[in-house]
Amino acid sequence: MDRALFARAEAYMAACTDGGVHDEMHVRRVLGYALSIAGEMPEADGEIMALAALLHDVGRPEERADPALCHAEVGSQKALDFLLAEGYPPARARRVADCVLCHRYRADRRPETVEAKILFDADKLDQTGALGAARVIRFGGQIGEPLYQVGERGRPLPGEEGEGPSLLREYRRKLKGLAGQFYTPAAQALARARQPVMDCYFAALAAEAEEGWAAAQRALAQLLGEE
């Protein structure tokens, strides 16, 4: 791969990064995952893979400015335009753009090429394990989502369907079953290895919240002479 093109793609990525959990560090982790997975799959094109990983989130600023937009759709067009302006072969530029388009889960737009499947997996791997837990906590803070919802007398709720948005609901709805949603064997193995770390963390979070609430209730009852 041409080093100068890679450097310009890096610079373009950095200029399009909107911060938050989809920052430059996220992109570089996805790049590392993607190249590692591609290294175990001889049929994967490493250059296509590297460019797609670098450019996969360039549509984030537009989506943040207008949530009605899909960053994968915007980013796919931006990636295509960037590569064509760089003189990159149009057919290969379209392969990169297709990877970017399909990296966000959509039931009607699943990745079909090996490179698109690798990018999908690499992006989702950054939602697994301790890093995944840290990112979802950080994202919840970004959008003002609570750690958990509360019910009667302020008792923490477990994050089940029907509750309002919360960190625990995000875990139960999405992150708990994430290890079974990967396309490539390498990503599947890494996700399975990381899943217990995430499960342990969220189990501890729910348990500590419940224990803290119960202790407060006991202390309050004693103070009020209600025991």
UniProtKB/TrEMBL annotation:
Annotated Pfam families: HD (PF01966)
Domain HD/PDEase: 19-137
InterPro entries in the cross-refs: HD/PDEase_dom, HD_domain, HDIG_dom
Alphabetical list of NCBIfam families matching this protein: HDIG (TIGR00277)
PANTHER family per UniProt: HD_PDEASE DOMAIN-CONTAINING PROTEIN, SUPERFAMILY HYDROLASE, PUTATIVE (AFU_ORTHOLOGUE AFUA_1G03035)-RELATED
Name by which UniProt lists this protein: HD domain-containing protein
Origin species: Bittarella massiliensis (ex Durand et al. 2017)
